[in-house]
Amino acid sequence: MTAIAQNATSHTPNKAARLPISNEGLAGTARCFSADSFAKMQSIMYRKPIEKGSVLFWEGDPADKLIFVRSGRIRITKTSDTGRNMTLYMLQKGDLYGQPEPFANPVHAFSAEVLEDGEIGVMQMADLEVLLWQHGDLAIEFMKWMGLVHRMTQSKFRDLMLYGKSGALCSLLIRLCNSNGVQEKEGIYITLKISHAEMADMIGATRECVNRMLSDLRKEGVLTVREGHLLIKDVPYLRGVCRCDQCPMEICRL
Q1: Strand arrangement of the beta sheet that strand 223-226 belongs to
Q2: DSSP state for residue 51 in the 8-state scheme
Q3: How many C-beta neighbours within 10 Å does residue 69 have?
Q4: How far apart are CA 95 and CA 191, in angstroms?
Q5: Can you tell me the distance from the alpha carbon of 179 to that of 253, in angstroms, rounded to the nearest whole number?
Q6: Do the Cβ atoms of 78 and 59 come closer than 8 Å?
Q7: Which Gene3D superfamilies does the record cross-reference, listed alphabetically (predicted)?
Q8: In the chain, fewer beta carbons within 10 Å around the N or the C end?
């Protein structure tokens, strides 16, 4: 038995806890995997219920697991030296998240907070290494998934660094359209009810700054609010402000 296999065995959870996880309706970043490859990953997953307000891991915790979101929502955050949290990702059904690294004893650079009750599938990183070693097709698809996550991160930092707070907000509104938008006659209705404070955490701004910018966009007729939900009326205007690169929807998302 190889050292990797031995390590995987020592990290394998109780097999009684493992349950088959259907890939029906597979969405999110997990779309990078074929049905056959995802079935292999299911074989090493075990289910775990998650509750709103709980924390899956903190910055500095061991990064020895990969999670697959079956239901619910999870926020990935980074804490600044002043104690402020900035939201980097909003994981939803079908998303895969982890921090695979080539270094020994890796630790999480971010924290994960549960926003909605749900369920995740958990894979031990050591078990996954064995699968990747055994199945070259899965390893290639895993590389594609890592590339997708890297592109998503690059695009978000581009928005934050190049076009100011207004550009970052307009990009966020486009991402909301792609991730949680429903096309209606008047525009794109955002099904996710999101607060100004949450939006501020996503673009590194204050709630007051977001209030002011959204008010300006309402005056321009770019958006309106209906029963606490945003209705985007002029997406081309938003694209012009943030110099939209027309990224695929798999990248331009929350």
Answers
A1: 181-183, 188-190, 229-232, 223-226
A2: -
A3: 23
A4: 18
A5: 5
A6: yes
A7: Jelly Rolls, Winged helix-like DNA-binding domain superfamily/Winged helix DNA-binding domain
A8: N
DSSP letter for 233, please: -
Whether 38 and 125 share a structural domain: yes
> Could you tell me if residue 2 is inside a domain?
no
Residue 184's CATH number: 1.10.10.10
Distance (Å, whole) CA 153 – CA 188: 25
Q: What span, in angstroms and rounded, lies between the C-alpha atoms of 195 and 193?
A: 7
Q: Is 94 a member of any domain?
A: yes
Query: In terms of Cα–Cα distance, which of 217, 238, 249, 223 is closest to 167?
Result: 238
Answer whether 25's CB lies under 8 Å from 74's CB.
no
Q: Decide if pLDDT at 35 tops 80.
A: yes
Please identify which residue in the block is written with the tokens 């029963």: 227
pLDDT of residue 16: 37
Q: Which residues contact 227 (CB under 8 A, 6 or more apart)?
A: none
For residues 171 and 123, membership in a common domain is answered with no
- Does residue 179 share a domain with residue 126? no
Q: Which domain holds residue 206?
A: 158-242
For residue 15, the model assigns a pLDDT of 40
